Please model this.
Amino acid sequence: MAAEQQKRNVVIIGGGIIGSTTAYYLSHHPNFNKQRDTITLLEATKIAGGASGKAGGLLALWAYPTCIVPLSYKLHQELAEKHGGAERWGYRAVHCGQVDMYGVLAKSKGEEDVNGKGKDDSVSLQKRTQKAIGLLRATGVPKDLNWVAADGMKAYEEMGTPLTTAQVHPYHFTTSMASLAEEKGVKVVYGSATNIEQENGAVKAVTYKAKDSTEEHKIDADTIILTAGPWTKTIWKPAPISALRAHSVTIRPSRPVSAYVLFTSIDLPRGNNKRGETVTPEIYARPNNEVYACGEGDTLIPLPTSSDLVQCDEFRCQEIFDHVSSVSEELRDGEVTARQACYLPNVSKGGGPLVGQTNVKGLLMGAGHTCWGIQNGPATGKLLSEIVFEGGARSADIGSLDPRKFGV
Ligand SMILES: Cc1cc2nc3c(=O)[nH]c(=O)nc-3n(C[C@H](O)[C@H](O)[C@H](O)COP(=O)(O)OP(=O)(O)OC[C@H]3O[C@@H](n4cnc5c(N)ncnc54)[C@H](O)[C@@H]3O)c2cc1C
Model:
């Protein structure tokens, strides 16, 4: 009861999917009182300007960690039903499969060839755990998966069905969460957090530089929630969060394609300047005649100071397009509508994400969501709202994600 009556000043640092869903669940919590409490979402550049706006958007009951996945999957369903998510952020159930293929399609006339660059500095995003791979079962190519080249197919294995796998458009989902939170009284402030002030072992205030100015400001806070994705360590040094760059493209296919997300392994043909290598892009059919494709990560360029300074390597984007074009005419003859890069927030010691109270009173964290932050955003936000307004996580046992276990 005490927690319900006490005035709360909450500041969330970072407006990616984790900060935005946290703002949503805090502002929709029955103990939040708009007249009494304040919730501020502090974002350095743009809501969903980082990975949360540039991810694939796959949701899966077979994702990890298992302590929050079922809750988050269910919350995605509930949010979509409550707020018209099918229309607003492209929520839908999808098939998901692993395809092993030969790249058999020649390039369209006039396209440049790719050389072998990039393979040696590529880092797997680790979405397919050995366990998940072990659970795959061979089913043959489904009839309605008719947009991959039949003569290039080596094997198809089902990874998920529409009962266990879904998708959202991450940018539209994240910005909708932030808007719905704003409607309930959350104040969105654009500025970069520079310091977390403490007094007697408890948080006291956040200082920040306003966007496009050097002016320093301060917001008093009894609760500060760190949700700055790969930038979390720049604000709070003990956080064991590292960053991995990844490129992606969106394509308008030459004709609408059926609702499949494909994890691929493609043996490229040996060409003039190719080494006959195997590549593993992921391909996500989306509503509204869009296909998203991403490649492996790289460690060539360290994390820049903000999301608007992320360097996108056109060559890596072209490579992704060339690789997926070698197995699908619909993609090869389509139009590339975006070429982009972003940084994945990884946990340097493995495991994670880190969700909950840290060693400093009033300093909470929701960070290090690796390649499943879109899937696990809603559960993270809900559990953090329970910790703030009810004194502890109620909807799932997240002891294994406690930041204090990671030395934070
Ligand atoms: C290629 C790719 C594909 C992916 N596909 C999927 C997928 O299919 N399904 C899935 O579940 N996940 C996927 N992910 C993972 C997912 O994108 C991330 O886990 C998730 O977006 C992380 O969200 P976040 O809010 O923690 O971080 P971010 O999205 O990086 O947000 C952090 C925010 O903090 C802000 N910030 C930084 N510093 C400050 C500061 N000092 N003050 C204020 N604000 C600050 C930034 O501007 C940014 O907006 C993918 C990731 C990549 C790279």
About this structure: The chain has a mean pLDDT of 92. Residues 44 and 192 are 4 Å apart (CA to CA). DSSP finds eleven helices and 21 strands in the chain. The domain at 91-164+242-345 is CATH 3.30.9.10 (D-Amino Acid Oxidase; Chain A, domain 2).
